Every structure is written in structure tokens, then in C-alpha cells.
Amino acid sequence: MIEYPYIGNALLFFFIVSLIGYALYNITRRKGKPEPGKEIIYACGEDMQPEELNIPPETFYEYLIDLFRVKKLRRLHSGVLNDYLLWVLAGTLAAIAALMIFG
Amino acid sequence: MIAYIAAVVIAAAGLYAVLMKDNVIKKIIGLSLFSNGIHLFLISLGYREGGIAPIMQGLDFMRFSSMAVDPLPQALVLTSIVINLSVSAVGLSIAILLYREFRTLDVRKIREVRG
Amino acid sequence: MAYGFLPIGVMLATAFLIPIASLKSDRHAKHVATAGMILSLILTATMVPEIFSSGRLVFQIEGWPAPFGISIVLDTLSITLVFLSILVSLLVVVFSYKYVKERRTKYYSLISLSLVGTLGMLVAGDLFNMFVYLEVLSVSSYALVAFNKDRPAIESGIKYLIIGSLGTSLVLLGISFLYGLTGSLNLADVSIKLLSVPGAAAGLAIGLIISGMAVKAGLMPFHAWLPDSYQSSPSPISAIFSGVTANAGIYAIMRIGFISLMSHQALLGLLLFFGLLSMVAGAFLALVQSNLKRLLGYSSISQMGYIAMSIALGTPFGVSAGMLHMINQAFIKGLLFLSTAFIVYRTKTDNIYEISGNFRFHPVVAYSFLIGSLSLVGVPLFNGFVSKWMIYMATLEVSPVLTVISLMVTVITLAYILKAFYLIFLGNAKPDPDAGILPLSMKIPIIILSAIIVAMGIFPELSIKLSVMMFSDLDRFAYIGDVLK
Questions:
Q1: Measured between beta carbons, which residues in chain B are less than 8 angstroms from residue C161?
Q2: Which residue in A72, A77, A85 has the most chain B C-beta atoms within 10 A of its own C-beta, making it the best mutation to test that interface?
Q3: Residue C36's CB: how many other CB atoms inside 10 A?
Q4: Taking the domains of chain A in order of start, what are their residue ranges?
Q5: Residue range C124-151, pLDDT digits in tens
């Protein structure tokens, strides 16, 4: 297409598509005055306050944290210096073994 | 040969002190010991049986270079001793601050930053 | 004349001029530091055209010829990282004008010394020179971590000191083995003489050096000091640690590993293992953090894992992708840490559960943190996209499993950085009495970094070409030929 020195075709496509997206976003925004009854949070008929509905974001990833045992990994970083030094030593021995045997 | 064995023993003692001891001061001493073991190893790499000190004293060049021990490791070790000195100085001053704040030098008890 | 040493010389002079200029009062420490860094930057920029045209500049200190004297090697990789380091340090120093109010002499002097150490490591052609500058960098970093002198800072300082000193002692052990095996300390000379040495002995020495340098770089089993140090050091210093210091560690691994070993299959496998481990574990550990700077520290470990994994692929595409990610990561993490520094300066806490709703009050910082986050994840139009895309394509050539793992880790990256952004900036706002006050000295580095990130994302051809040029500098035979003439 157009041959500019530093702007490639990808950038032009990105720009055009983002313009289309912005136009669509503006077209479908709410017009008109909000009625007083429409602002209440819908909770299937129950009476919920706004604070209860703010779920902390990390509950979304609880299953991943349980699958990969991240809490245990976090407890492993216990703050004890000797453990950290033993990890360095273990990593060094592993590196030396790998390079001596295979290389 | 004895020098190499001594270097390994000193370095092993230093490594043991760094890894296994719980007192911060002992760990810093262990770091010094470990470095000194490496320095001894480095110097004895340049040793030559029956060699003279590498200071030119009026001998001609060919005889001197066949009799002198290697001066390069000695220069490296001098540099490294100075570096080790500065690391120990910084380490001991941080250890002083550590004792003032925590009232203990036990590494197993200084665990506030974790996770 | 070894004018390749001039940036280092200027920074060294700055580091020792700052205490002299501050004898009466330390108002002028920051000006001396800034002036020294700008001068160093200009000197580096004057050397850049010559290096791009002729490939590699090799200087010998005092004219002693190559295997016996000390060489200073400036090729595209070195000069790019030198320029990057000085630029990031300069922006951090400008940011610290209003951030650091007491003991400024020591602060700016230590930053200059750490920059001296980094630059020395990047341009050294001699193994022992690299070790000495590594120690200079390390000791000034130990002092910088413990700068605040409160309980977390001292604890992190002593832990960093002991772990880091163990690492550099391992480097010294490896260098002494190399000297015993080959009789020389020049990197090019060692790589020639290492061919006639049994492979296991060479592997032992190189393994020790790589492990020691990996402590500095922040790869996984050696990373334990990193989150604590990033958490407890002054926030602009964390920007230097992640952008400048860790890059020097990875550079040393690349340079020593690729040039001294003839067949580096074992080394690549080792780096791949460490890289994958750092990438995955760093990202997951960042997901459960409540301290913002610690979260960014684990994020740095994860990004270093990306770089190590990408370099361990061995293909030209892979290694250039890793190098480009190294450069991009410096800018991204610099921007994120400087924005964090402003948030900490404003709200006096770094626990993300205690602050919220800052978007309305500090839009510049919020947008810059947003730009940094999007770039970290790899959204197009920012420079993180370029390097991450190259990493995905490079891993696709070698093994699609790696691509899948990289993509999953990117999703986790999005999770934790978006969590941080949401909790700090969006949400219900706490009333902040002096809202909207962003000192100019803090605004300029943040805006410059954001502009660089967006510019590198919109015009990526330059950085891609640069990374390919940088890869060709790791070619063993060209390096030996240029240094030993």
C-alpha cells in the first residue's frame, strides 16, 4: 500500500480499525436522561449494598493458585537466610553438573 | 600440592560458615574465609618449584622469566583482598545497624520481610 | 588513547566530586550527578556512529597488546546497553530531586558508583576487569538497599550482601579456574585456549561463573534477594536495580557463555531451565503479593526468565528477541517503578490494599502506569509487544510447548499488573488534600519514559534492526578476530 519510511501497513490497519471501533463505541453509548429507578444495582431481587458487590480481583485466579500451589511457594520464601543460600548452592551444583556432564 | 589442599580446606570451612551458621557476624567471617581460600588457590596456581620472587634485580630477562613465579595471580589476589575488605566493611556496618534495630543477630529470627 | 573508557572515567570523577562539592551543604550533589551523567551520555553518543559503521571498537589500556593487556571492547551490544544504563540512571537521578531529601551526598554518590560498576562490566574485555566492576556494582548496591535504615531495609541489605557476596566469590572461583586452565584472562584468548582443555574442566569453570552472574541477574534459584531488595530500597533505586543492574548480569552471562564456549548446547539447556523456572514461578508469585514493590520485583524475575528463555533458544531470531526484551524491560520497569515511587511518596504506603482511587487525582502518573502495564503485557502500539511477539515467533520455531507456556505466563502477567493498577488507581477514592501536585522533576522522567515506550512501539523497525545487529556481536570468531587482531 502506501510506502512511508517507518510506518508499516500494520500500523495503518491498526489505526483504521481503532477509528472504526471508536466510532462504534460512540454510536452505542447511552443517550437520554437516566431515570431514577434505573441506577439501583440489580441483584436478582435481593437487597445488596454496593460494597458487598465489589469482589476482590484475585478470587478470579484462586483455582490457578490452588493448582500450582502458589501459597506453598510463597511460604517457601520464608525469610530465613540459610534457605536462600542453600538454593544458590543447589543451583550452582546443578549448573556445574549440567555443564560438566553434557558439555 | 599442600597449598591446594589447604586452599580447599579453608574454602570449605568458609562455605560451611556462610551456609550453616546462624550468626550474621559468623557469616561475614565465613565469606572472608571463603575468599581467602580462593586467594590461596589463585596464588598457588602461579607457583613454580624453586622459583624466586618476581622482582627484577639485574638478572637478564630470559633467566628471570624462567625462574620467577607468576606475578599475575598475585596482582589479582591483591585486588581481590581489597574488594573483600570493602565488602566486609559494608557488611559489618550493616550488622551494627541490624543489632541496633533488631537486638539480635540470629538469622532465623530476622524474618520480617518474607513472602 | 582509550577513549572508550571515558564514560566510565567521567562517572568515576562524578562519584568522587559529589562529596567534595557537598562539603558545605548537599544542595549541589544532585546537580553534579546530573551534569556528570549528561556528559557521560554525550560521550557515549559520540562513539555510537563509529561503532555502527565499523562493527567493533577495541581499545587497549596504555597500549599493551591484546592477550597481555586489558582490552575494552565496544560493540553494538555493549554501547546500546551503556547508553540505556546511563539514560535510565539519569532519569532516576532527575526523579530523585524531590524524592530524596536527606543524606543526598551518599545517595547520588552511590548511584554514580553503581553506574560506574555497570558500565565497567558492560565494556570489559578482560575477565578480571569484569569481576572488579561487578564488585564495585555489588558493594554500592548493598549500601543503596540499606539506605533508608529502617527495619526492612537493613534486613534486606544484609541478606542481599551475603547472597551477593557468595555469588561474586563463585565468580572469582570460576575465573581462577579459567586462569589455571588457560593461563590468560582476556576473554578472546581464553576462548581460543579453552578448546585444548578437557570439556568437563571448562564446564566446571564456566558453570561457576554463570551461577555467580545469575545471582546478579535474578534468575530463579538465585533470586531470593531480589524481592526483598526491591521492596525495601528507595523506590527510584529499584528502577535502577531492575533496569540497569539485572541487565548487566544477563549481559555477562551472554558474553562469557557465548564467546568462551565452542559448543554451547549444555549452556543453552541450563539457561532454558532457569529461564522457564523464573518465568513461571515469578509470575505466579507476583499474583499473590500485597506489597506493590515486591510485586514488581517478582515481575522483574519473570521478565528476566523471558529473556533467559529466549536467549537459550540459540537461534538468531531467539537471541535478538531476548536482547530486545532486555532493552524494553529496562524502560518498562523504569516507568513502573518511577510511577510507584510517586505513589509511595504521595500516600506513604506501598500496600496496594490500602490505597485506591488515585486515578482522578494524579492522571499523569495513572496514564504512565497504564502505559507501562500495557507494555509489560505486550499490547500492540507499545514496545513490549514487539519483543514479546518476537519471543513467541522464536519459540514457535523451536518448540510450540514453549510458546504455550509463554502465552500462559503473559496471561498471569496481565492478571497481576491489572490487579495492581485496579487497586491503586481505580475504585473508590480516598480524599487526598493536595491532589494534583506532581513536581516537575518527577513529571519529566515519567513523561520521557512513556514517550520512549510509545515511540518504540509505533516505529519498531529501528529496534528490530538494532537487536539483529546486537546478535551478530555474539559471534565467537568475529569477536576473537577483532580483539586479538
A1: 87, 90-91, 94
A2: A85
A3: 25
A4: 9-33+54-102
A5: 988 999 999 999 999 999 999 999 888 8
